[in-house]
Amino acid sequence: MLIEARFNGPPGSGNGGWSAGIIAAGAGLAHGPAEVTLRRPPPLDTPLTLADGTVHDPDGTVVAQVAPVPGFPAEVPPVDRATAEAAATAYPGLVDHPFPGCYVCGPEHPAGLRIFPGRLPDGRTAAPFRAPADVAPATVWAALDCPGGWAVIAPGRPYVLGRLAVVVDRLPEPGDECVVVGAAVGGEGRKAQVRSGLYGPDGTLLGHARATWIALPPS
After folding, report:
1. Is 93 left (phi over 0), alpha (psi -120 to 50) or beta?
2. 155 vs 13, 93, 96, 104, CA distance in Å?
């Protein structure tokens, strides 16, 4: 397995959702239900090996673990595209982003997914998402990643993905105008529990996720 440099998250490492999707695909679990736990920032352009559900880098360091999980319900209901577009105009990451080059939600990535989740009055996040030309299951994993995180990210309080479980019901078609939503559902200490859902142009559920995000220590 290889996480190409263009699918970065924080500088020098892979976007958590895309990386988890590539790892799940390598385990034959691209559509889930599957859960990936990241044990260290996924390295870029580095051959990774998978054995017995554990991913290692060339030095033998554990990068992640992957396993099938029982199915779980979609907990974040959809919103219409107009609501998502309005929310995206107030995306906090446009002015204060911990990782502005992120492939999924970074405004400075030259060829990213450009998913900009803004906060809704009820605390959920929502963003429009146009499916790229080269849609793969990892695209859905990636799209389901950052919208959940932005339900808890705050100025001066960056988070990174720790664990992501995904169900991919079906892939969007290239160019589809989708909507992705996220919500915080709990947490303790530095850990936050979030949920997210990806919906197609007609409101059909394409995929959903549950995730654990971890707050970084103050710098």
Report:
1. alpha
2. 22, 9, 7, 19
Contact 139, 191 (CB under 8 A): no
Structure-block tokens of residue 198:
């990806």
3-state class (DSSP) for residue 193: strand
DSSP string, 53-113: TEEE-TT--EEEEEEE-------S----HHHHHHHHTT-GGGT--SSTT-TTT-TT-TTS-
Tokens of 61: 């360091």
What's the pLDDT tens digit per position in 92-149?
999 999 999 999 999 999 999 999 999 999 999 999 999 999 999 999 999 999 999 9
Burial of 219 (0-12, 13-18, 19+ CB in 10 A): exposed
Query: How much of the chain, in percent, has pLDDT values that exceed 70?
Result: 100
CB of 34 closer than 8 Å to CB of 166: yes
Tokens standing for 171? 């892939």
pLDDT score of 219 more than 90: no
CB hemisphere CA count around 64 (13 angstroms)? 32
Q: Give the ranges where the chain is alpha helix by DSSP (H).
A: 16-26, 81-88, 137-143, 146-149
Q: How far is CA 167 from CA 75, 118, 137, 216, in A?
A: 12, 23, 10, 27
